[in-house]
Amino acid sequence: xSIGNRVYKGRPAFNLSLLAEYEQLPTANIADQMNRxxxxxxxxxxxxxxxxxxxxxxAITVKVRAGDNLMLHAALELxxxxxxxxxxxxxxxxxxIMGEIMVTYAKYDRKIGGIVLDGPIRDIDALSQMDFPxxxxxxxxAGPFKEGPGEVNTPIAVxxxxxxxxxxxxxxxxxxxVIPNQDAESLLDKAKEYSKFDASKVEAxxxxxxxxxxxxxxxxxxxxxxFDHPYK
Length: 232
Description:
Putative 4-hydroxy-4-methyl-2-oxoglutarate aldolase; RraA/RraA-like; RraA/RraA-like_sf; magnesium; about 20% strand; globular; Glucose Oxidase, domain 1; metal-binding
């Protein structure tokens, strides 16, 4: 077996019916129901202008050598409408991993659900206006190499978060969250209920009905001292 230079075409089974449900849920609400530890680093931001505010799809994972995109090209040939390609790039920021040509191919030919890059893109003027979910760390005019090695559909890590092939990826203007494949169904109802609860708190804040009594209770429980006089 050629470890470090291999492509797995198969992934674990996943439930496509969940995608439409998760496309209605902000990443912040999902993150709160996952104890806030499954979010990619905030260096990865949405670069494009998709019509749908929330991206949801199942991960095709890609591990590339820093600044090289050969295995990303390989992944594009496996991807389809319900997939989100997620690329681990060894934290490199010196070269763009893809540009307008590749993203156009991903959108129109492969019709994939989105792309998440642990690295820069280029052609940002065009890509920032494209109706396609594209997340990256920024822009860099230097292009990638196409030499390999790398891997497709093996476990990777991006932004301190482990991602396995077939994990559910959700992204919006706040960023990207990773839901382990085996947890996606059981998490859904909790995230939906919490989203309703969160929306009710927003309405309460608008209408002057926000309940902030918990703030004083929490401060008192932590032994916070209060003084009426100015600091001296």
